[in-house]
Amino acid sequence: MNATIAPAGETGAADGLAVWIAPARTALLVIDMQVDFASPEGVLGGYGVDLSTVGPALAKAQNLVDAARQAGVAVVFIGLQTSAEQDSPAWKERMRRQGGDPDQDSALCRVGTNGAAFVGPQPAPGELVIAKTRYSGFFGTDLDAELRRRGLDTIVACGLTTECCVDCTVRDAFHLDYHVFVARDASAAYETDLHEGALKSLELNCAILVDSAQVVSAWAEAA
């Protein structure tokens, strides 16, 4: 995970970050930055989960969203939207076997509740919003079709949490033959070792890691 991308332009005009994530080919995916995952008023905050890693990631994600909009990059918000009717029996049985309360533990980002609302960056009118019921933004959604329809073959991903929904979405994107970049400082896990471990695994197998400032700089060139 010590490898880094050279700043935009430093690897040559034909092969730099600004070309790899050019606005005409790229979507910024903002994953699960929602009240239940990111706010003290949400479910996890109510459980006492340490959210100290989340605020900095939200701020970096906002920088990415602002830069993307200025450069004409497609911005896609992906959020968990659950209901008791759509809860996975396998998920709930796993929770039961681990000694949890499946009904209570499944009740994250329920449709129509404040917990499902986005926190930090907010969708602008006309931007694509994808509601999902599993970890990956591609599973059971039209995300792939929408990206293809727009002629996009590259994604820059950020969001919550690095080892879970970011990881699953990034891996599915790679399996679908997208070029994948992960903004490491605009993503977060609740534990630093989980964040770092997930990034290391993603970098090893399916993604290129970048800092949000590098992405902002590359899109500023385009803008």
Can you tell me the overall shape? globular
- The largest sheet has its strands arranged as 3-2-1-4-5-6
Mean residue pLDDT: 92
SSE pattern, N- to C-terminal:
HEHHHEHHEHEHEHEH
Contiguous runs where pLDDT drops below 50 for at least 5 residues: 7-13
Number of helices: 10
The secondary structure category is alpha/beta
N/C terminus separation: 30 Å
SSE layout and pairing:
Blueprint: H1 17-20, E1 26-31, H2 35-38, H3 43-46, H4 54-71, E2 74-80, H5 89-97, H6 102-105, E3 128-132, H7 143-149, E4 154-160, H8 162-175, E5 179-188, H9 192-205, E6 208-210, H10 212-222
Parallel strand pairs: 1-2, 1-4, 2-3, 4-5, 5-6
Describe the fold and architecture:
This protein has 223 residues and is of the alpha/beta class. It is 40% helix and 17% strand. It has 10 helices and 6 strands. The protein has helices at residues 17-20, 35-38, 43-46, 54-71, 89-97, 102-105, 143-149, 162-175, 192-205, 212-222, and strands spanning 26-31, 74-80, 128-132, 154-160, 179-188, 208-210. Strands 3-2-1-4-5-6 form a 6-stranded parallel β-sheet. β4, α8 and β5 (179-188) form a beta-alpha-beta unit. α4 runs parallel beside α10 (212-222) and α8 (162-175) packs parallel to α9 (192-205). The longest helix has 18 residues, at 54-71. It starts with 16 loop residues before the first helix and ends with a helix. The model is unreliable at 7-13 (pLDDT under 50).
Brief overview, please?
The chain is an alpha/beta fold and 223 residues long. The chain has helices at 17-20, 35-38, 43-46, 54-71, 89-97, 102-105, 143-149, 162-175, 192-205, 212-222; strands at 26-31, 74-80, 128-132, 154-160, 179-188, 208-210.
